[in-house]
Amino acid sequence: MQTLSRWILYPILFIFGLAIMAVAIVAVILTLAYPNLPSLEILTDYRPKIPLRVYTADGHLIGEFGEERRAMVRIQEVPETMKRAILAAEDERFYQHRGVDALGIARAAVSNLLGGGKRQGASTITQQVAKNFFLTSEKTYTRKLYEAMLAFKIESNLGKDQILELYINQIYLGQRAYGFRSAAQIYFGKPLNELTVAEAAMLAGLPKAPSAFNPVVNPKRARLRQQYVLRRMHELGFIDAKQHQAALQQPLVVKRDASAFGVHAEYVAEMARQMAVERFPEDIYTRGLKVYTTILKADQEAAYASLRRNVLDYDRRHGYRGAEAYVEMDKIKSDQDEELDEMLQDFSDSEDLHPAIVLRADTKQIRAYRRGGEIVTLSGDGLKFAARMLDDKAPPNKRLLRGAVIRVQKDDKGNWRITQMPEVESAFLSVAPDSGAIRALVGGFDYNRNKFNHATQAWRQPGSSFKPFIYSGALEKGFMPASIVNDSPISLPSSATGSQAWEPKNYDGKYEGPMRLRTALAKSKNMVSIRILQSSGVHFIQDYVSRFGFDAEKHPPYLTMALGAGSVTPWQMVTAYSVFANGGYRIQPFIVSEIRNEKNQVLAQAQPVTAGEETLRVIDPRNAYLMDSMLRDVTIYGTAARASATLKRRDLAGKTGTTNEHVDAWFCGYQRTVVGCSWIGFDQPRSLGKGETGGSAALPVWINYMATALKDQPEAFLPEPEGLVALDAVAPGKGPAKELFYKENVPQELEPEPPQDETSKPVD
Predict the structure, then answer these.
(1) Helix (H) or strand (E) holding 625
(2) CA atoms of 338 and 634, how far apart (whole Å)
(3) In 3-state terms, what secondary structure has residue 604?
(4) Helices 621-636 and 570-581 meet at what angle, rounded to 10?
(5) Strands of 592-596's sheet, edge to edge?
(6) CB-based burial label for 38 (10 Å; 0-12, 13-18, 19+)
(7) Which of 222, 249, 276 represents a domain boundary (last residue)?
(8) In angstroms, rounded to a whole number, what is the distance separating the alpha carbons of residues 317 and 320?
(9) Domain count across the chain
(10) How far apart are CA 250 and CA 246, in angstroms?
(11) pLDDT digits over 305-337, tens only?
C-alpha cells in the first residue's frame, strides 16, 4: 500500500515542483523584464499617420492619398453594432479579463488538442494592440511572453474603452485600410454609423486574416467568415434570431474600386494632390493635411453622369465591337466555380459597366457569370446591341460564345443589357465666370482606365467654337452684328494658309450670299469667318485672342485660324468664354480654395480677383454685350438651338465646334452664373463619324449639366452698357430689323437725323 502511495505521490510532487520552478522562472523574468518594457507614450499620445485628404467646397471627401488609408474615430462615435461584432469575432471576454484571457487560452488549448493541431489562437484585443504597436509578427514563445507582459502593462495604465479605441483605429483590414472607419468607406462607401449588422460582421471578420477574408478578393471565404461572426453575435446575445436571419439574407454590395468615393472627382483630387505636394512637400501623406477644392458636389455629379451617358450613347450609335477578351473554360466544372472569380480579377468594373464571363450563348439568350457568383441572363432588348456578334458569321476573334468576356449594365428599367467599354474620350468642366472658381471638372470617361486629364492637358483643334473670338476682334476693327458679309466660295493660295492652296467649304456645302454677321455666327458660316479675319488682319487677331487666355503661338497667323485650326484646351476655352459671360473681364480659373492642417488651421488660401476689377478688363463692355447677344442667337435659332428648346430659357449663349473630318466635337457656352465646355474625341485623333458634330456629340453633355446647375436659377442677362445705339438695319431678304451699333461706328446711311429747331420750320 505504501509502495502504491509512493508511486502516486512522487509524480504529483514532481509535477508540483516543476510548476513551482516554472512560476519562479516566470517571476524572475517578469521582475527583470517588466521594468524594461517600452514606454506606453506611443499609446497615450497616439498620433497615427493620417493621409492627405481632398474635399469638395461643400465638404464631401473626394480623394485620399497615403500609404495608410486611415480615418480616426472616437470610441463614443463607434456604433454598438460595430463594437459587438468586433468583440464576438475577436475577444468576447474583453471587458472581463486583465489583458490575457486564461479561460480563452484553456478553451483554445482544448480545441487544438481535440482538433489534432494548432487551430485556434487566444490573443486578446489588448494583446493585439501590444503586437501592432510594439512587436513583430514572428511566432515565437519569447515574443508571446513579451506580448503578454505588454498586455498587462497596457491594462494597468489604460481603460478598456481607450484600448478598444486604439484597436479600432490601428488594426489593418486590407485594401490599404487601417481602422474600421476607413474600412467602412473603402468596402461599403458609407460612414461607420450607417453600417448594417451584416456589413459590421463582414468588417469584424477581417482582422484575423485581412487577405484571406477580403470580400473584394475572396468573396466566398469572406462570406463564410461573416456567417461565423453573425453566429457568435447571436450566441452571445448581441443580436436576436430575427436580426441574425435578416443579416444572413442581406446581399452585400462591396465596392470593387478601393479608391472610389461618394463623389466621382478623381481628376480633381489628383490636381489638388499635385498642388499640395508642390506647396508642402514634407510629410505630405502622413500629417493629415486637408485640401478644399472649389467644386460643388451636385455640379460634379451632374457633370460626371452627363459625360458618361453621352459617351455611352455615342458608343452605341457606332455599334458593338465584340468580346473584350476570352478566358480558358476547360477546367470550369460548374456555373459557380470559384475559379471564375479569379479569371475576372484582371477586368475592373467601370462604375456600372461590369465584366462578366459568358457561360452559354445563342441568338436568343446569353447566360454570364458576374463577380461574386451572380448569374446574369440577357435576352430580348438586352441583346440587340450585340446581336450580330452572336451569329455564325461573326469574326471568330469577336464572337460571343462560352468563355467570352463581356460588359453588362442595367438599363433604366433595371434589366440587364450588353454594353462595352468605349474607345472615345471626353472632357467637361464648368466655372463661375465672376470668380474663376471651378464648379465641376471631369477629365475623361474613367480615371482608373486613363489618367490623362483631357480637361487641362488635351491640346485639340477648337473648330468653329473658336469663331466668337474672331468675331470679337472684328468688332474692334469696326464690324458690327448688322455688317453684311458675303457667304460665297473662296479660293486661297498657299501664302494665305502657310501650307498649301486652300478651297474651304461651309459644313453643309451651302452658300447663302450676303448676310449679317449675327446670322453668319448663328449658322456657323465658314466663308464669313474667313472674310472678316482677312479684313481684320491675321496678325491683329492672333494678338487679340491672347486677351482671352489663348497662346498666340498656338494660333499661327493664317486664314485657317478663322476655322479654329489652332490648338486649345478645354480649360482655356472656359476661361475665354467667361470674358463674354461676365461683361469683358478675364478671370483666372482655380480649383483649390484652401489647405488646412490636422488642427484645421489654414495654411494656404486662394486669393481670386473677381470680375468687376478694372485691372481684369480685356475687352470693351460693348463688345462683350454684342457678342453675348449674338451667342444667344446661336442657342435660340442657330446650330445649338436644341439648348434653349430643351432648357426652356433664353439666357443661354454659346457656340458649337466641329473640326475637319469630324475629329473633334465641342460645345462651349454659358449663362450669366456658369460657363461650361464639353469636348469629345479620340486620344489618337480620328474621325468621330459622319454626322457627329458639336451639336450632336458634345452639346448634350452641356445641356444635361446645365439642367442641374441652373435649376431654380432665374434668367439673367448682361446689363446694356453705355455707348450703344439701337437702329433699324436692313437684313438681306428680310427687310429692316433693330440692331445695336457702337455710337461712333454707326454707318452714315443709318445716322439718325438731328431734331429740327421749331423756329426754323417753314410757315404756310
Answers:
(1) helix 621-636
(2) 57
(3) strand
(4) 110
(5) 61-65, 52-55, 290-293, 592-596, 602-605
(6) middle
(7) 249
(8) 9
(9) 3
(10) 6
(11) 999 999 999 999 999 999 999 999 988 888 888
Q: How many helices (H) and strands (E) does the chain have?
A: 25, 22
Concatenate the DSSP letters of all residues of 483-507 into one string.
-EEEE----B-HHHHTSS-B----T
Q: What pLDDT does residue 251 have? A: 83
**Cα(166)–Cα(178) distance, rounded to whole angstroms?**
11
Evaluate whether 514 touches 733 at the Cβ level (below 8 Å): no
pLDDT of residue 409: 95
Residue 130 near residue 151, CB atoms below 8 Å:
yes
Q: Are 105 and 122 contacting, i.e. CB atoms less than 8 angstroms apart? A: yes
Q: Are residues 201 and 122 in the same domain?
A: yes
Domain of residue 90, CATH code:
1.10.3810.10
CA dihedral 37, 42, 43, 44 (to 10 degrees): 110
Q: What are phi and psi of 593, to 5 degrees?
A: -95, -40
Asked if the structure places residue 242 within a domain, the reply is: yes
How many other C-beta atoms can be found within 10 angstroms of the C-beta atom of residue 76? 7
Q: 556: domain CATH number? A: 3.40.710.10
Residue 52 CB coordination number (10 Å)? 24
Judge whether 182 counts as a catalytic residue: no
Distance of CA 94 to the CA centre of its chain: 42
Residue where one domain finishes, among candidates 533, 566, 599: 566
For the chain, the residue count is 764
Instruction: Please check whether residues 401 and 476 belong to one and the same domain.
Output: no
CATH number at residue 376: 2.40.50.140
Distance separating alpha carbons of residues 651 and 241, to the nearest angstrom:
61
Phi, psi of 504 (to 5 degrees): -65, 160
Report, in angstroms and rounded to the nearest whole number, the Rg of the chain calculated over CA atoms: 35
Place of cell 476693327: 477
Q: Is there a single domain that holds both residue 194 and residue 108?
A: yes
Q: Hunting for cell 500629417 — which residue is that?
A: 287
- Of the candidates 306, 426, 435, 464, the residue annotated as catalytic is 464
Burial (Cβ within 10 Å: 0-12, 13-18, ≥19) of residue 599: exposed
Q: Among all chains, which residue has been given the C-alpha cell 436644341? A: 642
Q: DSSP secondary-structure letter at 648?
A: T
For residue 557, the model assigns a pLDDT of: 95
Are residues 97 and 44 part of one domain?
Answer: yes
**Which residues, listed in sequence order, are joined to residue 293 by a DSSP beta bridge?**
592
Angstrom distance (rounded) from CA 78 to CA 80 = 7
Is 550 in the same domain as 401? Answer: no
d(CA 259, CA 177): 11
CA end-to-end span of the chain = 166
- Is position 446 within any domain? no
pLDDT tens, position by position, 623-682: 999 999 999 999 999 999 999 999 999 999 999 999 999 999 999 999 999 999 999 999
Q: Please give the Cα distance from 760 to 264 (Å, whole number).
A: 75
Which grid cell sits at 545? 485672342
Task: Confirm whether 598 is a catalytic residue.
Answer: no
Interhelix angle 160-170/125-134, rounded to 10 degrees, is: 60
Same domain assignment for residues 486 and 402: no
Q: pLDDT below 50 — which residues of the chain? A: 28, 32, 112, 116-120, 756, 758-764
- Residues 6 or more apart whose CB falls under 8 angstroms from that of 367 comprise 335, 358, 359, 360, 361, 375, 376, 377
Statement to judge: residues 471 and 410 lie in one domain: no
State the DSSP H helix or E strand holding residue 231, giving kind and residue range, or none if neither: helix 219-235
Q: Is residue 207 part of a domain?
A: yes
- 229 and 365 both lie in a single domain: no
Rounded distance, CA 271 to CA 54, Å? 10
Range of the domain at 401: 324-330+340-419
Please check whether residue 163 lies inside any domain of the structure: yes
The single residue of 64, 68, 90, 425 carrying the catalytic annotation is 90
